Q: What sequence folds into this?
């Protein structure tokens, strides 16, 4: 989990904040693979954003789906290595070898996959494939929920 090296089970309900009392205004689930260049680029970009995002109530969860080789499922150690390599201490990094957050009905997937979740309803509000560096929808959701 964020700000910890202790291995634990990540649960969706940890990010549920239906009335805003926990200060979570937006959740970004970032699905990545260690071999993916665009995923590495995004992971390098995230630590500089987290100080501002944390104050806005934005939580980021990275789910590793594949390890260093394309087609090889990620392991717990891959997640630990990823977290350490990119200094993701304020981001939860987990393993999702089943790729449970894959966009439905897609035959090919462009990694990373960014899934934006509204913590008030736990509904997916946006899915973006590939790394663009554009977090407008994430920031807008956080600002909107902060005002509620």
A:
């Amino acid at each position: 989990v964020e700000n910890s090296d202790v291995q634990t089970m990540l649960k969706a309900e940890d990010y549920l904040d239906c009335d805003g009392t926990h200060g979570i205004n937006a959740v970004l689930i970032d699905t990545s693979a260690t071999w993916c260049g665009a995923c590495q680029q995004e992971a390098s970009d995230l630590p500089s954003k987290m100080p501002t995002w944390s104050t806005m109530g934005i939580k980021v969860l990275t789910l590793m789906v594949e390890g260093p080789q394309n087609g090889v499922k990620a392991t717990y150690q891959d997640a630990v290595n990823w977290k350490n390599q990119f200094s993701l201490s304020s981001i939860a990094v987990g393993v999702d070898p089943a790729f449970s957050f894959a966009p439905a009905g897609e035959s090919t997937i462009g990694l990373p996959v960014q899934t934006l979740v509204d913590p008030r309803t736990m509904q997916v509000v946006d899915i973006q494939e590939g790394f663009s560096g554009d977090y407008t929808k994430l920031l807008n959701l956080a600002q909107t929920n902060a005002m509620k």
Notes: Residues 37-56 form the longest helix (20 residues). Strands lie at 26-33, 58-66, 92-95, 113-118, 123-129.
